[in-house]
């Protein structure tokens, strides 16, 4: 049976913030000073566009652990009024469009100290290097790598002129999921979606067989 904490983590990874809030609140009823749960709940509130609730929880974390890096960095960002760190309403940002958007779990994720400062809605850049696509944050730090099957497909589109945006969706310990959206599709690929199901992707990569005359 999945533990309540693991269930809360999985719910957050799916972006189901309402249930993530409920699950973490239930855990806190039994363990009111559990730091990981407090951080998860704060993150869920932040993702729902409730910075005041998130700030209260991060401050509680620091009252329990004054050196907690997750709370320190997120509080700093909450207090940051710079224009390049807006408070983004995530429910609008993560609207899915078949063929044009995809939630992707990154591979070879950067050290926890690096990804801990990331927040949902923060923009990343996608860079092609050595037949791979790397996700890079605004401070030019490596965050993670896209899976090979997605790299193989997107590199073809990106090199031809398709344009994509990428945003942090969820971060939990050593896992990071991003939301990628196609923002421009060139005419050459007007009938080819950027993202397809695994089965369709395999078929599209196979060479078509000629019909016997």
Question: Could you characterize the architecture of this molecule?
Answer:
This protein is α+β, with helices and mostly antiparallel strands and 213 residues long. The protein folds into 2 domains: 4-79, Tetratricopeptide repeat domain (Serine Threonine Protein Phosphatase 5, Tetratricopeptide repeat, Alpha Horseshoe); 90-205, 2-Layer Sandwich (Alpha-Beta Plaits), CATH 3.30.70. 43% of the residues lie in helices and 19% in strands. The chain is built from 9 helices and 6 strands, in the order H-H-H-H-H-H-E-H-E-E-E-H-E-E-H. It has a 6-stranded antiparallel sheet with strand order 1-6-5-2-3-4. A hairpin with a 2-residue loop joins strand 5 (163-172) and strand 6 (175-184). Helix 2 (17-30) runs antiparallel to helix 3, helix 3 packs antiparallel against helix 4 (51-64) and helix 4 runs antiparallel to helix 5. The longest helix is centred in the N-terminal third of the chain and has 14 residues, at 17-30. The radius of gyration is 19 Å and the shape is elongated. The protein starts with a helix and ends in an 8-residue tail after the last helix.
